[in-house]
Amino acid sequence: MSLPDTRALPNIIITGTPGCGKTSHAEQLAEQHPEMTHINVSVFAKENGCIEGWDSERDTSIVDEDKLLDKLEPLADKGGLIIDWHCCDIFPERWIDLVVVLRCNNTVLYDRLEKRGYKESKVQENVECEIMQVLVSDAKNSYDPSIVVELSSEDVDTLDQNVERISGWLDNWKAGHPEGESNRLP
């Protein structure tokens, strides 16, 4: 199968510690931009046979990242993805046009994760990840820092503001790339 040389739409990653609002942001953005496709990676991995086991300590599925990337590649090469996952550094840099790292106040995050019924150890691990800025660091180390944006995700007002900001970026990208973006390696 031949992959397209260009993609007409950008690919966006929305990442952050669990509980920061990734899925809410991605769903609202996809609602406002029906030309874009929301990929909740956790759901996509399960639906496409990309789960290789279970981590009982962390109470979560273990994703076969190679298989996941193989399944996502034809979609990413077409463009128009909003990738929603708790990490971003596995996705090839050539696929991605914008990385949005959602940040959340630790107390708010703790309460959100506790309400989800997470085990105390999982809540603590995720709050520590947020405190240590692990996902921001991963994003800036894996992609050109100029495409990495940190946004606060505290409540519905910030959700609306963030989606408006990402939506504006998306409109600017489309206007600035009337012929699309190359899928070729530089």
From TrEMBL:
<keyword id="KW-0963">Cytoplasm</keyword>
<feature type="binding site">
    <location>
        <position position="21"/>
    </location>
    <ligand>
        <name>ATP</name>
    </ligand>
</feature>
<feature type="binding site">
    <location>
        <position position="22"/>
    </location>
    <ligand>
        <name>ATP</name>
    </ligand>
</feature>
<feature type="binding site">
    <location>
        <position position="23"/>
    </location>
    <ligand>
        <name>ATP</name>
    </ligand>
</feature>
<dbReference type="GO" id="GO:0004017">
    <property type="term" value="F:AMP kinase activity"/>
</dbReference>
<feature type="binding site">
    <location>
        <position position="24"/>
    </location>
    <ligand>
        <name>ATP</name>
    </ligand>
</feature>
<feature type="region of interest" description="LID">
    <location>
        <begin position="115"/>
        <end position="125"/>
    </location>
</feature>
<keyword id="KW-0690">Ribosome biogenesis</keyword>
<keyword id="KW-0547">Nucleotide-binding</keyword>
<comment type="similarity">
    <text>Belongs to the adenylate kinase family. AK6 subfamily.</text>
</comment>
<dbReference type="GO" id="GO:0042274">
    <property type="term" value="P:ribosomal small subunit biogenesis"/>
</dbReference>
<dbReference type="GO" id="GO:0006364">
    <property type="term" value="P:rRNA processing"/>
</dbReference>
<dbReference type="InterPro" id="IPR020618">
    <property type="entry name" value="Adenyl_kinase_AK6"/>
</dbReference>
<keyword id="KW-0808">Transferase</keyword>
<keyword id="KW-0067">ATP-binding</keyword>
<dbReference type="Pfam" id="PF13238">
    <property type="entry name" value="AAA_18"/>
</dbReference>
<protein>
    <recommendedName>
        <fullName>Adenylate kinase isoenzyme 6 homolog</fullName>
        <ecNumber>2.7.4.3</ecNumber>
    </recommendedName>
</protein>
<dbReference type="GO" id="GO:0005737">
    <property type="term" value="C:cytoplasm"/>
</dbReference>
<keyword id="KW-0418">Kinase</keyword>
<feature type="region of interest" description="NMPbind">
    <location>
        <begin position="40"/>
        <end position="63"/>
    </location>
</feature>
<dbReference type="GO" id="GO:0016887">
    <property type="term" value="F:ATP hydrolysis activity"/>
</dbReference>
<dbReference type="GO" id="GO:0005634">
    <property type="term" value="C:nucleus"/>
</dbReference>
<comment type="function">
    <text>Broad-specificity nucleoside monophosphate (NMP) kinase that catalyzes the reversible transfer of the terminal phosphate group between nucleoside triphosphates and monophosphates. Has also ATPase activity. Involved in the late cytoplasmic maturation steps of the 40S ribosomal particles, specifically 18S rRNA maturation. While NMP activity is not required for ribosome maturation, ATPase activity is. Associates transiently with small ribosomal subunit protein uS11. ATP hydrolysis breaks the interaction with uS11.</text>
</comment>
<feature type="binding site">
    <location>
        <position position="19"/>
    </location>
    <ligand>
        <name>ATP</name>
    </ligand>
</feature>
<feature type="binding site">
    <location>
        <position position="116"/>
    </location>
    <ligand>
        <name>ATP</name>
    </ligand>
</feature>
<dbReference type="InterPro" id="IPR027417">
    <property type="entry name" value="P-loop_NTPase"/>
</dbReference>
<keyword id="KW-0539">Nucleus</keyword>
<comment type="subunit">
    <text>Interacts with small ribosomal subunit protein uS11. Not a structural component of 43S pre-ribosomes, but transiently interacts with them by binding to uS11.</text>
</comment>
<dbReference type="GO" id="GO:0005524">
    <property type="term" value="F:ATP binding"/>
</dbReference>
<keyword id="KW-0698">rRNA processing</keyword>
